[in-house]
Specification:
- It is a single chain.
- The protein has 138 residues and is an all-alpha fold.
- It is 68% helix and 0% strand.
- It has nine helices and no strands.
- Helix 2 crosses helix 4 and helix 5 crosses helix 9.
- It is globular, with a radius of gyration of 16 Å.
- It starts with a helix and ends with a helix.
- About 5% of the residues have low confidence.
Length: 138
């Protein structure tokens, strides 16, 4: 369900400015991209997008697929975290909410709009709840 909602009309809109910046950085040679990157932006997302654009191309559709897939993967991650923190029923509810949330459906497939949430930078911390939820149980 999450994949279908996010993939519907994926390439219908032209690139947003942040997606165009992502494409520009992904097509720039790695060393030049690292030198020109603002200090507040981590290079991991752009470094991962470079081989992807070389493999899949630089169309609007190709540029949005990695973010779409990360947005879809967020659904079972939310289910697992909700299940660990509040029980199986809460996990399923959180998964459903994540799958159909209009904000995540609309912005999830965007090439860079949710980059901080999907590929954290060096200064980002997930906080104690996600760390506790993902820790193995004894």
């Amino acid at each position: 369900m999450a994949l279908a909602l996010r993939a519907h009309r994926l390439a219908a809109q032209s690139l947003w400015s942040d997606e165009d910046i992502t494409l520009d950085r992904a097509l720039t040679p790695l060393w030049d991209m690292l030198r020109g990157l603002p200090v507040e932006q981590g290079p991991l997302y752009y470094a991962l997008m470079r081989p992807w654009t070389l493999l899949a191309g630089s169309s609007d559709l190709a540029l949005r697929w990695p973010s779409l897939l990360a947005s879809v993967v967020a659904v079972p991650v939310a289910m697992a975290m909700g299940g660990r923190l509040a029980g199986r029923r809460a996990g399923r509810l959180l998964g459903l909410i994540t799958a159909v949330n209009p904000f995540l459906v609309y912005y999830g497939p965007g090439g860079a709009r949710l980059r901080p949430a999907l590929v954290p930078g060096p200064g980002d911390s997930p906080g104690p709840a996600p760390r506790r939820a993902l820790r193995p149980t004894p």
